[in-house]
Amino acid sequence: MGITAPRGTKDIFPEDTVKWQYLENLTKKIFSSYNYKEIRTPIFEETALFQRGIGETTDIVEKEMYTFEDKGGRSITLRPEGTASVVRAFLENKIYGQAQPTKYFYIGSMFRYERPQAGRYREFHQLGAEVLGADNPAIDAEIISLGIHLLEELGLKDLELHLNSVGCPKCRKVYREKLMEYFKPYLEDLCSDCQDRYERNPLRILDCKADRDKEFMSTAPKIYEELCEECETHFANVKKHLDLLGIDYILDANLVRGLDYYTKTAFEVIYKGLGAQDTIFGGGRYDGLAQEVGGKDIPGIGFAMGMERILLTIEEQGIELPIDDSIDLFITTIGERAEEEAFKYLAKLRKADLKVEMDYLGRSVKSQMKTADRNNANYSIILGEDELDKGVATIRNMKSGEQVEIKLENLVEEMTKRID
Ligand code: HAM
């Protein structure tokens, strides 16, 4: 076989695009009831944005970015996530000068050079939400509830919300030292990646897939027990607001997330049935990111969901989405004259907003009927010499089998009546 799609990418065909469209439309509907507005940022950015934003010592920046030099000699990176771009756009366009907070959502492809497996791709799609300019813990609870609302509306079950606070640079510094002290005697027992992380990013040891089940992990100092007063009050308030909404959570001290910009609240929603890649969405507060990227002190919080993982969960849980991919009418024709008349009717019907189709391959009546079925037609008519001479046609309801004779000149009107 000749050229194939790059490893870790996927073509999406109509039987699946309808599911993507359903998810996107529902996202737009629910997010707009929380007053989040859509933002679209470039697919590629200056590499420095992600290096500074996501963090030099993260897996994403160290190993997974699609970085290249463009013809003008600039270092460019395909976006591995959306948050850094949203913050860049907010700062560059001085949106902070408007009334705050600013609530955005986005839907689009992201790129990471990871080892492909179920639920993990090199081009994947995220839908995400970000709030800038508000540090109120109620917003943290709102953003979490927004994500859960969407998943529940889709019918997803058995989801777990894991919650943590990763503190601020002030309390994290103290915690970092405590953690290094704790891990020191176990250094030999850690995987080679974590031995490397020990000096550079010891918090990441806590959520290492290879090490996380080792016994000494469960007794490691818990960051939410080491928070400074401000972070502790914030965390208590986030929990209070989640309680107000009746949202259950699991306190998870080992949840540190794979991006360095997080401060205070961090969370993930997990569906265990997905296997190794079981996080449907993750996010948290990033009060230092705007400072890092553009020198402005603006708080932020958000999440992003893997759309492939949502669709995998839908499949895994056997959820039937209410998708209607039927057409309104299929016109079966007999002979050239009928074909030409039908062709004209199609144009009129389509202009009246009806979904209609006919056969273009000169098939037999029997196989045209099969095509009508394959296209999920709700109604069909047969046009032949006889019908044209008499100026009538029989509309057949494909589900009930009911047939009604109508005047051909009234076809658009009769069909519109049936579909409304
Ligand atoms: P993240 O945890 O890196 O966070 O990604 C969020 C979600 O994107 C994951 O939970 C997963 O569902 C999906 N995802 C990530 N990598 C892949 C992949 N290779 N293949 C398929 N799905 C994937 C972020 O990206 C942050 N920007 C989230 C955020 C927004 N934090 C604050 N605001």
UniProtKB/TrEMBL annotation:
For the keyword Transmembrane, the answer is: no
Aminoacyl-transfer RNA synthetases class-II family profile domain residues: 1-322
SUPFAM superfamilies, from UniProt?
Class II aaRS ABD-related, Class II aaRS and biotin synthetases
Q: Which residues bind L-histidine?
A: E81, G82, T83, R112, Q126, E130, R257, Y261, Y262
Q: Which domain of life is it from?
A: Bacteria
Gene3D superfamilies annotated for this entry?
A: Anticodon-binding domain, Bira Bifunctional Protein, Domain 2
UniProt-listed InterPro entries = aa-tRNA-synth_II, aa-tRNA-synth_II/BPL/LPL, Anticodon-bd, Anticodon-bd_dom_sf, His-tRNA-ligase, HisRS-like_core, HisRS/HisZ, HisRS_anticodon
One GO BP on record is:
histidyl-tRNA aminoacylation
Please give the Pfam families that the UniProt record associates with this protein: HGTP_anticodon, tRNA-synt_His
Give the record's subunit note: Homodimer.
What are the record's GO terms for cellular component?
cytoplasm
Question: PROSITE patterns of this UniProt entry?
Answer: AA_TRNA_LIGASE_II
- Tell me the keywords, alphabetical order: Aminoacyl-tRNA synthetase, ATP-binding, Cytoplasm, Ligase, Nucleotide-binding, Protein biosynthesis
Q: Any idea what this protein is called?
A: Histidine--tRNA ligase
Q: Which GO terms describe its molecular function?
A: ATP binding; catalytic activity, acting on a protein; histidine-tRNA ligase activity; transferase activity
Q: Which NCBIfam families match?
A: hisS (TIGR00442)
Localization, per the record, is: Cytoplasm
CDD domains listed in its UniProt record: HisRS-like_core, HisRS_anticodon
Lineage at the top is: Bacteria, Bacillati, Bacillota, Clostridia, Halanaerobiales
- Family stated for the protein in its record: Belongs to the class-II aminoacyl-tRNA synthetase family.
E.C. numbers: 6.1.1.21
This enzyme catalyses:
tRNA(His) + L-histidine + ATP = L-histidyl-tRNA(His) + AMP + diphosphate + H(+)
What general EC class does the enzyme of this chain belong to? ligase
